Amino acid sequence: MDQIAPAVVVRDLHVRFGDVEAVSGVDLAAGNGRATALLGRNGAGKSTTMKVLAGVVPPTSGQVTVAGHDAETDAIGVKRVVGYCPDVGGLVPRATPWEHLQLSARLRRMDTWEDRGRDLLERFELGDVAHRVVGGFSHGMSRRLSVVLAALHEPAVLLLDEPFDGVDPIGVDATLEVVADARARGACVLLSTHLRDLALEACGTAIVLRGGNRVAEMQAAELTGEAYRALLD
């Protein structure tokens, strides 16, 4: 446990969509300078939890604080301090990667961003397609661009939801580098995925969700294949 207040605190989080309870009592805390993996099967509540942390979906009940901002009462404040790669969508099909970067920079009132934007595009091998509309991109290319957009402004809290889905080894390595860079500058990273091995390579701590509940939290190195499968069933 961190000696200072964690960057992200979730207490008894519940999220309901009509009669469906997507998250049913999740608790977690994530610290600055650390990367935490959210693991679990599809439908475990990982993406919904991440959407709440990003200020996109309000909590039905419970307490959620992100870098000092209450997710229920200050969603705009939450959005200012996070960089969010959603599990699907989030891109404008008729816009180019460069136009996405321009829009993000303007919304966040960034004066200097071009050099970092070019560097990130090159890292993710998107430099050659920076001025092509993303509607023709493969799923993996779109995933890589989503990570670039999340990392552009060097957020205090970096939220990556399924960043490895359909991504080639170059994209995987670039994403791992973004996570390492964020940790080095003291940011809090939460990474949601069903790919256990990649999550454990990126993160020091793992939280396992099942059926909308947290069922375990442990050091990543302790989460062997057999132990992980037992938690999922």
UniProtKB/TrEMBL annotation:
GO MF: ATP binding; ATP hydrolysis activity
Keyword Transport: yes
Residue intervals of the ABC transporter domain: 8-232
Gene3D superfamilies: P-loop containing nucleotide triphosphate hydrolases
UniProt signal peptide: none
Entry-linked InterPro entries: AAA+_ATPase, ABC_transporter-like_ATP-bd, ABC_transporter-like_CS, P-loop_NTPase
This protein's record includes keyword Nucleotide-binding: yes
Keyword terms, alphabetized: ATP-binding, Nucleotide-binding, Transport
Family: Belongs to the ABC transporter superfamily.
Protein's name according to its UniProt entry: ABC-2 type transport system ATP-binding protein
